[in-house]
Amino acid sequence: MRFLDLPRFPAEHFGRVRLQDQRYKQFDDGLRQLEEEGLMQVFFTAGGRREPIVGVVGALQFDVIASRLRTEYSVEVVIEPTSYAAARWLADPAQAVPSLGGGAALATDRQERRLVLFASKWEVEYFERQHPAVKLLEESPVDATL
User: 51-97, pLDDT tens digit by residue?
Assistant: First the structure.
């Protein structure tokens, strides 16, 4: 039997989650569970495994994330807004990514799928015009798993 991942709505708000104590296991478990519930998407930039970036549809979801991590997982976090405004997955994961300018950053999601975080919708459009061979996806790719 095969199940497909559910596609997620594109995130519009992004914040860096900073753990305020040393409960990394509870922190990781909480983020994983909240992401599986569809509350948010979790992204990791180079060297940013301990302070991931979360993407949400509405800014008030940051408060919900912090509250649930505190009450259900006993961890205190601060979620700091970032300059990112859009996430786009690479349609071809093996494709090389041209040099990123401005406020863009290469990242991965929990399934190790590569994506680019952009500072604005204009940056996304500019990147697409400058690099038409690099196909970007607005939603995370759907993977079939057993």
Answer: 999 999 999 999 999 999 999 999 999 999 999 999 999 999 888 88
Q: Give the CATH number, domain containing residue 31.
A: 3.30.70.3280
Q: Report the predicted TM-score, pTM, of the whole model to 2 decimal places.
A: 0.86
Best CA proximity match to 42, nearest among 107, 109, 87, 102: 109
- Expressed as residue numbers, the domain containing 44 is 9-81
Residue 103 maps to a domain:
yes
CA–CA separation, 61 and 45 (whole Å):
21
Q: Are 68 and 29 in contact (CB under 8 A)?
A: no
Instruction: Give dist(CA 25, CA 8) in Å, integer.
Output: 25
Closest of 8, 10, 12, 138 to residue 81, by C-alpha: 12
Q: Is residue 28 part of a domain?
A: yes
Q: Which of 118, 120, 105 is nearest to 44 (CA)?
A: 105
* The CA-based dihedral angle spanning residues 15, 18, 23, 26, taken in that order and rounded to the nearest 10 degrees: 0
Q: Give how many domains the chain has, as a whole number.
A: 2
